[in-house]
Amino acid sequence: MDLRNLRYFLTVAEQGGFTAAAEQLHIAQPAVSMAIRKLEQQLDLPLFDRQGKQVRLTDEGEVLLRHARTILQAADDAEREMRELHTLERGEVRVGIPSMLGSYYFPPILMAFHHRYPGIRLEVVEAGTRKLQQMIHRGEIDMGVIVTDIPPEDLETQCFLHDQMMAILPADHPQAEADSMDYEAFFAEELVLFKEGYFHREVIDRISQEAGLPPRISFEANLIPLIKQIVSHGYGITTLLKMVVADDPSLVAIPFTQPVWLKLSLAWRKGHRLSRANQTFVDLVLEQAAPIERR
């Protein structure tokens, strides 16, 4: 099966039409149509129902689509690994990182990696852990940071950080000098939380459900500077890792009475051999992690 024709097929399926696929591939539309016809002739099966400019996958096309993604991803992986087999002067690392860690934990690591391996292209994608898992499976990124209290069965994981989630209060809050904060007191407050799909929001939603304490969400935002400003001005409280407010005198971090520990890991597709560049990035992350953080 010709990989080029298979790639054209995948693009038509994803773009929903031959013209849109041709534009995406930067080739003439007749070339796309010819490639699909050859593929259908080779398989002796119809892959698309053609209705004017719109096309729809047949049942046979749906089956091929699943295989096409796997085959093309494997081909791309093989090509990239062959390029990088003997040298780290070239290569690519595509990693997904949630904004909290991307802003306060990873910058020194990313800069150190670029300094050591300036020829390797480093692409960083910001998203919540749930979306990052989906992007890993689709092959859009090579690896991503996820919470692994319960490791996913379909991903390989390597823990690099074990840290405590803290209640974040303005410095003049009545409980700012308390040793800890219980769940009942926390959920009685107006809350400023990340949107769904981010790891610290998922943890709070789980605690709320288990404790039977509905959250009083006053603000939802994914911008950490905005969240910190809202909390420091007394419009609510939130939860973050302590590192996020370590240098901010207007905010205090208090542990929960029942400590909330997060186990954060780099994750990639199970059974997928990391390229040399990606493995080198994982090794650097683990090298920079303190021993206590990897327990």
Automatic annotation (TrEMBL):
Transmembrane segments: none
Keywords: DNA-binding, Transcription, Transcription regulation
CDD domains recorded: PBP2_LTTR_substrate
Alphabetical list of SUPFAM superfamilies matching this protein: Periplasmic binding protein-like II, Winged helix' DNA-binding domain
Every HTH lysR-type domain range: 1-58
PANTHER family: HTH-TYPE TRANSCRIPTIONAL REGULATOR YBHD, LYSR FAMILY TRANSCRIPTIONAL REGULATOR
Family designation: Belongs to the LysR transcriptional regulatory family.
Protein name from the UniProt record: LysR family transcriptional regulator
Provenance organism: Marinobacterium maritimum
